[in-house]
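hey m, so remember when u said the tokens were messed up on ur end? i reran from scratch. heres the input so u can diff it against urs
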Amino acid sequence: MLRSVVLGCGAYLPEKILTNDDISKFVDTTHDWVVERSGIHQRHIAAEGELTSDLALAASKHALERAGLDAQDIDLIVLATATPDNTFPATATAVQAQLGIHHGAAFDIQAVCSGFVYALSTADNFLKCGQHKRALVIGAETFSRILDWEDRTTCVLFGDGAGAVVLEAQEGGGTLEDRGVLSAHLRSDGRHYEKLYVDGGPSRGQEVGHLRMSGREVFKHAVINIAQIMEEALEATGVEPNDIDWFVPHQANKRILDGTARRFGMTEDKVVITLDKHGNTSAASIPLALDVAFSDGRLKQNDLILLEAMGGGFTWGSVLVRW
């Protein structure tokens, strides 16, 4: 059977770093307060005029270089973002054009913080059915553009960045020993729309709006939904928690990450955490974490990796990958 094998990963973070102490100068908060409640120490902020497509392009070039491929080898681009350059066209098409690709397909996916697992699952299906050969899957966000910088409950949590992976359809034996995407599970429940949303949009208010969040409610649902979708992945594949080499979760809150790992008996040294340095970068958080783990030598070929995320909508999902 065909498997979607990861050939390379890449990332990009804007140059500007905003620390908790920096934020405390214009909103009522402290470094200790932010760390205690989230685990975040700093985040990166896009420069004026630096677009989501700029971040995505840089991460894509990095991933292509790692994969040893030219942009012309790519025939599918799936870009996950909640902060596109424009309402339309898709930011993915801007990346496609800047890479000089004039063939194949490029489109965006909007599932907020779950965006990358949604994008990875979507690209996997295109590759497995033989419709495309190689895909660039990107998570890119400029969340700083939709934050209310007077709301200390949200502005301290998010940052900007982009990450990408290159996938190639390769023949596999149909077993868990195959490299590539082994399973993907996606869920959503729109009843919780108003617990995490942006209070603007072209149809509703003809404005961009700001991110609004009911933190306690999001936390409660995240703990339940993330555990459920991880259990689905393990049950579907017959994998035990101790078979997982690396747990790469969406980087939203340190308490959620720690609690989830404990529930599945995973020690902290198996969890890839970048939250302290990146903040919550929404759809970019998982590919950014993959890049960090690969760059520092932790992530090696044939390692078994479990990805999970939950975002506004609510949306949530998991992907099991053999690197």
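this time it looks ok to me. The two ends are 17 Å apart (CA to CA). if urs says something different then somethings off w ur setup not the seq
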